[in-house]
């Protein structure tokens, strides 16, 4: 999973670096490093969730049902399986969110240009992309919104970008 996220981050960073000025490349490199750190943090969270689910399943297999009655092995396995599925679902949601944000940032860099989006933050709430920060022109603001709206899985864009030349 972490390798997949790192691959996406590296592809985005490579695309952005092509055609950028030296200063833009430095900014892009810094953003790439931050994205890489976030991907590592996400991978650590996913490993932690999986470990917690594994430990919960192990405890369920070793313990009784809590009310003093002994749980059957099948019930313990079912309980552990449900917890693992829940952890897997949370992990999948986190990966989808990270992928959507990365895809949106790549579209912004391509549509608006690296120097225009260095001060733009992208977040995701459900299927809504939220753009914050500043861009130099009204045209950049509009293009950023259009580009974000074209991201797969996005149903709405909230454009909170400011014009700051």
Characterization of the model:
- By secondary structure, this protein is α+β, with helices and mostly antiparallel strands.
- It has one domain (2-163).
- Helices cover 68% and strands 13% of the residues.
- It contains five helices and three strands; from the N terminus they run ααααββαβ.
- The protein has helices at 2-17, 22-62, 73-112, 114-117, 138-149, and strands at 120-125, 128-135, 156-163.
- Strands 1-2-3 form a three-stranded mixed beta sheet, covered by helices on one side.
- β2 (128-135), α5 (138-149) and β3 form a beta-alpha-beta unit.
- α1 packs parallel to α3 and α2 packs antiparallel against α3 (73-112).
- The two termini are 39 Å apart.
- The relative contact order is 0.12.
- The model has no long low-confidence stretch (mean pLDDT 76).
């Amino acid at each position: 999973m972490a390798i997949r996220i790192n691959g996406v981050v590296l592809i985005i960073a490579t695309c952005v670096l092509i055609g950028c000025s030296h200063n833009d490349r430095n900014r892009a490199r810094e953003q790439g490093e931050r994205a890489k750190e976030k991907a590592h943090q996400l991978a650590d969270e996913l490993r932690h969730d999986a470990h917690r689910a594994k430990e919960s399943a192990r405890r369920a297999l070793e313990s009784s049902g809590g009310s003093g009655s002994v749980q059957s092995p099948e019930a313990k396995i079912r309980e552990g399986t449900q917890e693992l599925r829940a952890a897997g679902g949370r992990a999948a949601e986190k990966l989808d969110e990270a992928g959507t944000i990365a895809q949106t940032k790549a579209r912004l860099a391509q549509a608006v240009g690296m120097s225009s989006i260095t001060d733009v933050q992208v977040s995701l709430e459900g299927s809504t992309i939220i753009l914050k920060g500043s861009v130099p022109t009204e045209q950049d603001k509009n293009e950023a919104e259009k580009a974000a709206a074209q991201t797969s899985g996005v149903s709405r864009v909230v454009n909170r970008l400011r014009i700051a030349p």
